[in-house]
Structure formats: structure tokens, C-alpha cells
Design a protein that fits this description.
The complex is a heterodimer of chains A (about 120) and B (about 110).
Chain A: E1 5-7, E2 10-13, E3 19-24, E4 31-38, E5 42-50, E6 53-56, E7 65-71, E8 74-79, E9 88-95, E10 105-106, E11 110-114
Parallel strand pairs in A: 2-11
Antiparallel strand pairs in A: 1-3, 3-8, 4-5, 4-9, 5-6, 7-8, 9-10, 9-11
Chain B: E1 3-5, E2 10-14, E3 19-21, E4 24-26, E5 32-38, E6 45-49, E7 60-61, E8 72-74, E9 83-90, E10 98-99, E11 103-108
Parallel strand pairs in B: 2-11
Antiparallel strand pairs in B: 1-4, 3-8, 5-6, 5-9, 7-8, 9-10, 9-11
Classes of the chains: A mainly beta (about 120), B mainly beta (about 110).
Chain lengths: ~120, ~110
């Protein structure tokens, strides 16, 4: 397995544009997380899916952010409209979330720059 | 709500010196604690977890429930240990890791 795959690796966009980040979790994992990493706040959980269902989206900053998981092998995080303060590295992670299998496996991240 | 605190944003040491990266948590139940590491230009990966009680790359961490701490230690730092280290917590019944803000470790030659 190639691990968690995110695309794109880098994204530069202008303020006001729509941005879509993509994630393919590890096959067989039932949990998927989106995190945002910044120097000031570290790693913040944005949203958590279990079996493709959003369970905890309390970390989603505002209505401009939305996330979907249409099936077990794909998830998107969308920002519309984007703002400069959204600039950060966005990580997707997945886990088996079963018994003692609690390790989260991370993707390479998408570095988003909004100018 | 649970919380993870890593008081140091940056820790700078010389090669061969002992290292201790601090992690404190707030949770009233029985937590599961982890240390994740992110080397330059690489993805975050698990370094160790308290239930395994093992030493990875010379690092150890002991869960101290009395002090609610899970400090990461290594007796002799190496240059290749330079990385970002995140302490994380999972609480009973949840599989959602809560991360601290991270500590950047720099090991000078």
C-alpha cells in the first residue's frame, strides 16, 4: 500500500478562489481525519469521518470549509472562498480505529498558499 | 475536553547531549499517549506509544498518571534526530488523536 495519498502537494491560489484538496486513505481503514498545521496553532483537527460519515466537524473553522467522503477510498476538503489566513499545510490521516489499532497514518500534506 | 501541552516550541541541543521533550495532558480517564515525529520533507509518522513500552531509535517515554505527563527522552542526541515532535492523546472510546503544538528539536554537530 502506498499509504495515505494527498493531492495536490502544493497549491497557490488567489483570495476568493475555490480550493479543493483530495485524499485517498489506506485501503481497509475506517476512519479519516483532516488536520490543519500552522506555526501558531500546531496540528488542529478539522473533521473526522468514521465509515464515511462525518462524526466530528467541530474543528471546521467556518462555513467556507466543507468536507465530503463519498466512499471509503476518497475524501475532499473544500474551501470557498479562500482567504490568506487559510494558508497552511493540510494533512489527511486514516486509521483502522479498532481495538488497539489506534495509530493514525498521515499523508504527505498539501501546502496551501492563498495570496 | 482533553488537551495536550508541549511547553517548548524549540529545543536546541548539541550532539551527544541528553534530550527531554515535555508533554503534559489533561484528561480525567485512562488515556492512550503517542509521540509522532515529522522529519524534514517527510510525513508525520508514529515514533512510539505508551502501551508498547518500547524504545524506538533510542527514545523512550513513560506515562506518569500522577503528573499527567508523557515526556520523551533520549540519553544521547544524534543529528538525525532533528525533527518536529508531536505528542498526541486518544481518550477512551474515541479514536481521534488530539495533538500538542509540537516541539522542534535541533541537534547541532
Amino acid at each position: 500500500d502506498a499509504g495515505v495519498i494527498q493531492s495536490p502537494r502544493h497549491e497557490v491560489t488567489e483570495m476568493g478562489q475555490e480550493v479543493t484538496l483530495r485524499c485517498k486513505p489506506i485501503s481497509g481503514h475506517n476512519s479519516l481525519f483532516w488536520y490543519r498545521q500552522t506555526m501558531m496553532r500546531g496540528l488542529e483537527l478539522l473533521i473526522y469521518f468514521n465509515n464515511n460519515v462525518p462524526i466530528d466537524d467541530s474543528g471546521m473553522p467556518e462555513d467556507r470549509f466543507s468536507a465530503k467522503m463519498p466512499n471509503a477510498s476518497f475524501s475532499t476538503l473544500k474551501i470557498q472562498p479562500s482567504e490568506p489566513r487559510d494558508s497552511a499545510v493540510y494533512f489527511c490521516a486514516s486509521s483502522l480505529a479498532q481495538g488497539t489499532n489506534t495509530e493514525a497514518f498521515f499523508g504527505q500534506g498539501t501546502r496551501l498558499t492563498v495570496v | 475536553a482533553q488537551r495536550v501541552t508541549q511547553p517548548e516550541k524549540l529545543l536546541s541541543v548539541f550532539k551527544g547531549a541528553p534530550v527531554e521533550l515535555k508533554c503534559n495532558y489533561s484528561y480525567s480517564g485512562s488515556p492512550e499517549l503517542f509521540w509522532y515525529v515529522q522529519y524534514s520533507r517527510q510525513r508525520l509518522q508514529l515514533l512510539l506509544r505508551h502501551i508498547s513500552r518500547e524504545s524506538i531509535k533510542g527514545f523512550t517515554a513513560d506515562l506518569n498518571k500522577g503528573e499527567t505527563s508523557f515526556h520523551l527522552k533520549k540519553p544521547f542526541a544524534q543529528e538525525e534526530d532533528s525533527a518536529m515532535y508531536y505528542c498526541a492523546l486518544i481518550t477512551g472510546g474515541s479514536y481521534i488523536p488530539t495533538f500538542g503544538r509540537g516541539t522542534s528539536l535541533i541537534v547541532h554537530p
